[in-house]
Amino acid sequence: MKKNFFCLSVLLLFPIILLSQVVSELNPPDFIKTVTFKSNTTQGQLPVLKLGESLMLEFDALTGEEEDFYYVIEHFNFDWTPSNLVKSEYLSGLDNQRILDYENSFNTYQIYSHYNLVIPNTQTRGLLKSGNYMISIYDDYDELMFSRKFMVYESLASVGVSVKRSRDVKVIAEKQSVDLVITTNGMNLNNPLETIKTVIIQNNNLNTAISDLKPQYTLGNELIYRYDTESAFWGGNEYLFFENKDVRAANVGVQFIELRDLYHNFLYTNINRKDRPYTYNPDINGNFLVTVLDRDNPDIEADYVMVHFSLLQEELKSKEVYVYGNFNYFMLEPLTQMVFNSESKHYETTLLLKQGFYNYKFVTVDKKTRVLDEGAISGNFWETENNYKVLVYYKDLGARYDRLIGFGEATSVNITN
Known about the structure:
Blueprint: H1 2-19, E1 32-38, E2 48-50, E3 55-61, E4 69-76, H2 87-90, E5 91-93, E6 97-98, E7 102-104, E8 113-119, E9 124-127, E10 131-139, E11 144-153, E12 158-165, E13 175-183, H3 192-195, E14 196-202, E15 205-211, E16 217-219, E17 222-225, E18 232-234, E19 240-243, E20 254-259, E21 263-267, E22 270-271, E23 288-290, H4 298-301, E24 304-312, E25 319-324, E26 339-341, E27 346-354, E28 356-366, E29 372-373, H5 375-378, E30 387-394, E31 403-411
Parallel strand pairs: 2-11, 21-24, 22-24
Antiparallel strand pairs: 1-3, 3-8, 4-6, 4-10, 5-9, 7-8, 10-11, 12-13, 13-17, 13-18, 14-15, 14-30, 16-17, 19-28, 20-21, 23-28, 24-27, 25-28, 26-27, 28-29, 30-31
């Protein structure tokens, strides 16, 4: 009898465990490229949009078969577990609809179809609630192709963000600390120590985000966060970049080109910058922008190019080296892993990328612990210009979902002590 009761308990609990799983994004298969996700910017980056603003998702399918793709939108809690809202509560209209807006490439060596999804649209009229969302793209066989996270906020609280040098003297030359002041603007917050949650995101990279810091003290209608170490990020270094908007001539960061089946761009060999002095070099903080010279529509007239990366670096026996950036959502994949060439003494890899302006850096991953180190090759410097986004969530007592009530943003270009 006890055994049967135990089995019944496990069966009843199993759906709850499944429902409370934390979701993560899936990167697309090799034939889907240039996933450009944005809201109010031309760059491909993490969309944080105000409730009522439009969302844009674009991508290319390199099969040349005009395949059908469908999108599904889901709402999540602060911690990326599924929320308790049913779809009709957070979505006006319908999802699981086919993406109707697509065009075939024109005058390119690589044939592809460019898909463009804008929300709101005729079928999906808009999002009704603030909070965390994920959009998932499926093919005709109901197989998940890829997914992306985004956030929708309400302007109910003001978020002041300032970037300081680290208060920890051991890493004062390598880290940046983020201070917050959240002003409730008259909104009555019950027990903010428990109901308010924050997320700090550096350079649109959710992998390194710092979340769930508690306010240290309150001053009137302000919540103050001035942590010594808990809100500190490694400063990193300015991103490397290249631009190949003209595939027929070497451009910024491109040493020489070759035309084979496709154009091949060979970038200048990069070096280890960890122990070199910091040099300011404006970048777009790891993002990318599709551009093409002397064409009217980059979406379908930009070609795909085989881009050759190389890094002058002694072989790291215990670590793997990757090319890293928002061009693939800061994910570590076999495609972006570099291989050590024992003849040239370089780490090398080749990526198929659409023409444009790209930021990238080289990172290492420990083979045993799988710990990512962004500064192992680029270095960490307190002077580095980084972008910081701060999200403020509120879940009132008895509420069924986490509202995103405030959004703040700052850069470290004017960093102070």
